Predict the structure.
Amino acid sequence: MKLYNTLKRKVEIFKPSNDDSVSLYTCGPTVYDYYHVGNLRNAVFNDTLRRTLEASGYDTQHVMNITDVGHLVSDSDEGDDKLEKGATREGKTVWVVAKHYTDAFKNDMVKMNVLSPNGYNDMKNGDNYARATDFIDEQINMIERLIKNGFAYQTKQAIYFDVTKLPSYGVLSGQKLSDKETGARVDVVTDIQKRNSHDFAVWFFAVGHFAKHTMQWDSPWGRGFPGWHLECSAIIHSTLGDPIDIHTGGIDHIGTHHPNEMAQTEAAFGHQLARYWIHNEFILVDGTKMSKSKGNSYTLKDVTDHDFDPLSLRLLYLQAHYRTELNFSWDNLEAAQNRLHNLHALADLRWQSQSNGVHFNFESTVNHILERLQNDLDTPGALAQLSIIDTTLAGRVIRTSDRSSFEKLLQFLDATLGLDLSTRADTNEEQKKQLLARQKARDENDWTKSDELRDDLQKQGISVRDTEAGQIWSRI
Ligand code: AMP
Ligand code: ZN
């Protein structure tokens, strides 16, 4: 399998450190608002990676965090904590806000057919997500190591990681410290004791601007709360163990969050955090990155309110390579939904094979699709293989002797692309009778009866078209 490793800036052959299992970590949501269509692309990209690894014979251990504390409005330690801001906006407690948006996120994942992480089991909350607030001790332990190893220093406001102490800092982005911009200032909380502008906080004290921060814990240095970047390093260390095989995220994390995660682990434990770093490109709207702050974002609810199937959105993502920008528009989504309906019609052919149907080598299609996916997740290339089947079968049906290999292909597609093609149901007995009666009516040139039966089937969600192979139905 080949993957583009941001760390090396090239496509590499992927080899996990254990032969048959892969450890995978994904930065999860900050639960102060709904996930948007841009964020959901990240989720589907991670999921496609995981599904491809599993289809390639690897076991996966996938961990994802939930950020429920410490993520400030700006990545460079300024502004308010996003959770606190969400709580103020909604007049609720931070805990209620976190629970609400965590549940909403989990529901979105189910609707999008995104597999739940499997590398950590949260007994308290009954799911598989690692909440930052459940790893406070682990984060404090890490700060202790950072201080002991000489990488962190304390001011009155915070404990900072001194980026100048780690020569490899910034290797992921390839930016020298002198070239790295300091983030745009939002509601500035300046700390005059901070040594370098790029130093980042690993612990904020509950003083000054954060004196009333709701979520605060004791630490050996005083009450406060962890900096956002710390949770990922601490969670990886205590769940998967570092170095892990693959770390993923959107490209916006290449500049600050991921370098900071890497730095913490290297400084605390003396080895790298992850061997492969894989990043997805952005979803755009009219050429601009989709983001909450720009007010150009849509949620999954917006998508379903417009009568789109969440899996049409999933297909929209799969039609583009994860490392290319993708423009979101309702027209693009409609085109993806039409393509999904074509795939449904293709899948429904499994129930309609004929002894003189078209022979197709579905086994080799499975191999071709897997090859495309193993080539840095070439999902457009994988989908092109389905278009070949579609064109070959246009107006025809599959051969009965090929049916079981077609069904295996559908199961393989569900395992890798997650589009729910193999579970589509056959017509029921009554509908089968109606289809036979309609065919008979057509044979007898009784068009009125045949049209009536077609309309009746249509009302039951079965659409019928007439082709050279006779009538073919598909479930709408
Ligand atoms: P956040 O909650 O902002 O950390 O975002 C969650 C994930 O979505 C991160 O991996 C981001 O990099 C990713 N992301 C944010 N905005 C976009 C976008 N417009 N397109 C694609 N991915 C995005
Ligand atoms: Zn992270």
Q: What stands out?
A: Residues 183-188 have pLDDT under 50 and may be disordered. The pocket of zinc ion (ligand 2) is lined by residues 27, 232, 257, 261 (CB under 6 Å).
